[in-house]
Amino acid sequence: MKFFIDTANLDQIKEAQDLGVLDGVTTNPTLMAKEGITGEANVTAHYLAICDIVDDNVSAEVISTTYDEMIKEGEALAKLNPKIVVKIPMIKDGVKAIKYLTSKGIRTNCTLIFSAGQALLAAKAGASYVSPFLGRLDDIGNDGLNLIEDIRLIFDNYEYPTEILAASIRSPLHIINCAKLGADVITSPLSAIVGLLKHPLTDSGLAQFLADHDKAAKAAL
Ligand code: E4P
User: Fold this and answer.
1) What is the distance in A from the centroid of ligand 1 to the CA of 18?
2) Which of 87, 96, 99, 180 is catalytic?
3) Does ligand 1 lie within 6 Å of residue 26's CB atom?
4) Rg for the chain (alpha carbons), in Å?
5) Going by CA atoms, what residue is nearest to atom 7 of ligand 1?
6) Is residue 111 lining ligand 1, measured as CB closer than 6 Å?
7) With a cut of 70, which residues of the chain have pLDDT below it?
């Protein structure tokens, strides 16, 4: 399973990259705004800064919502760096834009997926990734993991090459459950990735090992 980090914060991206487990980054307009990145020149510079840190897979989202504009914006984003994956919203013009960009060899990530039907359409259009938003479904009392399971079944039935990029991850448990269900990728805040490291028995076990080592070393003096 690939690990992407869901942030536009350069320090957090560096920290995840330093951990040695990072395969990519997803951003969205909200995450960019959170870092205070506004204006085309700043946004472009920020995407390039992210591309400098990671090896591949930097999702950059279009702001336009019409076919012509999404294509123009998508092509411009893709030209910035070969690591860029153009993120397109699941709307009618978005499906058409995914079809067009795919035909031009540009990778796409269809975002804001909340149903299996939406994922199927995006896969038919040739999206490289679909991003089902688990946490936001859970927030409204649905089961986001059921959606991952349904999309996995559909994509496997027809051998769609589109990868399932589980998004809106809230916890380490979400990541584990996505892995159990066969999601190809998770995109997560740094906290949930780092949360996978932690177990109280690891901490107490290590403390015991070190204490026993010190005791034996002292006894040998
Ligand atoms: C996906 O690419 C989105 O950026 C993201 O996962 C949304 O997550 P949120 O529901 O925590 O905003």
Assistant:
1) 22
2) 87
3) yes
4) 20
5) 168
6) yes
7) none
Predicted TM-score (pTM) above 0.90: yes
Per-residue model confidence as pLDDT tens digits over 12-38: 999 999 999 999 999 999 999 999 999
Q: Which CATH number fits domain 2-219: 3.40.50.300, 3.10.50.40, 3.40.225.10, 3.20.20.70?
A: 3.20.20.70
215 flagged as catalytic: no
| Domain extents in the chain | 2-219
Query: Could you identify the residue written with the tokens 């089961």?
Result: 143
- The answer to whether the CB of 136 is under 6 A from ligand 1 is yes
According to the model, what pLDDT value does residue 96 have?
Answer: 98
Ligand 1 pocket, residue 7 CB under 6 Å: no
Ligand 1 atom nearest to CA at 59: 2
